[in-house]
Write a structure and sequence with these properties.
The protein is an alpha/beta fold. It has 14 helices and 14 strands.
Length: about 400
């Protein structure tokens, strides 16, 4: 049975991440900014004020005052410390989503309600009143209430997420798919990077800086995104967006860069993948006006293993070209890129190293597409903006056939 408390905790994290993204996208001033995990979950800085926001997400739980009591106590403590230190007052916002029970909290409330329901903790041994412990006067409590806003009817998880996607679609003039798989994915990564910065100053970002960091022409996987989406949906989405052409695949110089993991490398698995790429991305029938076949670069395989792999492909009648026409020959880009034919192939073009791939693809003037599937680090850019180079981070290279 699934651990429901763990699922709820994960949902809470994503709800907070999404609220952070939404807060950043909602900034309007040039110098307005959001700080992640500083005073509260999110601190919003504008030209006129600062608001510390804490998020609560209890999709299956009923609202009770006790749930938000610790957060309000913390906010009051911070407020009092600011008074003592002479810091400017800030606003405090508590935002929560609950399954039911919101009618228990009638807004606005007075300091008597604040004391009784949010600042008093009673046990068999004693009763503790937080405002007295902190030395907060009634006048100060009145001022604190003016700075405090509480929303226990915050948006549902899906509704908040949909609001983000709509803003990203508008920002980047893109499809909902691209908004989620490109920009939202990248936004999650940026929020995570900000949250773990050790220096508070490095956890602050403006809207313009955020947009620059999430605007990437390459697809970048993030483990938080996959945890939220699920591998099956992630792979299905990539297949539908990038590899749905099937038998209608168009002619192009198409390079697949594969990074087989050293600790899980299997020659048979790689051979199977190469045959799949060859079968799906070759058109060599006599009916095709422009026969073509794909290129593949395997990264991280040593020369001896690559030789063994090619020998087995040869033994299994896979008609490949590698740019080496005889023993001891130098690599010949013209050889590996020679025109394909129904009789002579090649059905597959196999580079031995990155420099061969770069030299060959940079020499072309026609349409070029690179699809890179990497585990940790992609290869360096080819340096030609006319080449479409899309990177997919895939945890297990054996899963690539589920995408292509």
């Amino acid at each position: 049975m699934a651990d429901r408390s763990a699922v709820s905790t994960i949902a809470g994290y994503f709800y907070q991440f999404d609220r952070s993204i939404l807060s950043i996208l909602g900034l309007t001033g040039t110098n307005d900014s959001v700080a992640i995990e500083c005073i509260e979950d999110i601190d919003v800085h504008t030209a006129t004020e600062m608001t510390a926001v804490q998020c609560k997400y209890y999709e299956k739980s009923e609202y009770n005052h006790s749930v938000i009591k610790p957060a309000i106590m913390f906010m009051l403590a911070h407020y009092k410390a600011g008074l003592t230190a002479g810091r400017p007052a800030i606003h405090y916002q508590l935002s929560g989503h609950f399954a039911s029970g919101q009618d228990k909290l009638l807004l606005p409330f007075d300091i008597a309600f604040l004391k009784a329901n949010f600042l008093t903790t009673a046990s068999k041994e004693k009763t503790v009143q937080k405002h007295e412990e902190l030395g907060v006067s009634d006048e100060e409590l009145e001022e604190f209430l003016k700075l405090l806003s509480i929303d226990v009817n915050a948006a549902k998880f899906k509704d908040q997420f949909q609001a983000i996607i709509e803003l990203l679609v508008k920002q980047f003039d893109c499809s909902p798919f691209a908004a989620e798989f490109f920009y939202y994915n990248s936004a999650l990564r940026v929020i995570k990077e900000l949250a773990i910065e050790p220096d508070d100053a490095l956890r602050v970002i403006t809207r313009a800086a955020f947009i620059r960091r999430i605007d990437t022409s390459s697809f970048l996987f993030d483990e938080w995104f996959i945890a939220k989406l699920g591998l099956a949906k992630y792979y299905r989405g990539l297949r539908n967006e990038f590899f749905a052409a099937g038998v209608n695949v168009s002619p192009a110089d198409r390079l697949f860069i594969i990074h087989p993991a050293g600790d899980t490398y299997s020659r048979n698995a790689v051979k199977t993948l190469l045959k799949t790429i060859s079968r799906k991305y070759s058109k060599l029938s006599r009916r095709d006006a422009k026969p073509f076949s794909p290129y593949v670069l395997l990264v991280g395989i040593d020369d001896s293993e690559l030789t063994g792999l090619k020998q087995e492909l040869h033994n299994e009648d896979v008609h490949f070209a590698d740019g080496y026409d005889f023993k001891g020959a130098q690599f010949d880009a013209a050889s590996i890129s020679r025109s394909a034919s129904p009789d002579a192939g090649p059905t597959l073009r196999l580079f031995c190293n990155l420099s061969e791939a770069q030299r060959t693809f940079l020499s072309f003037q026609r349409s070029r597409e690179i699809y890179e599937f990497y585990r940790n680090e992609p290869v360096e850019d080819f340096g030609d903006g006319a080449i479409s180079h899309i990177r997919f981070q895939v945890p297990n290279y054996e899963d690539i056939d589920k995408i292509i």
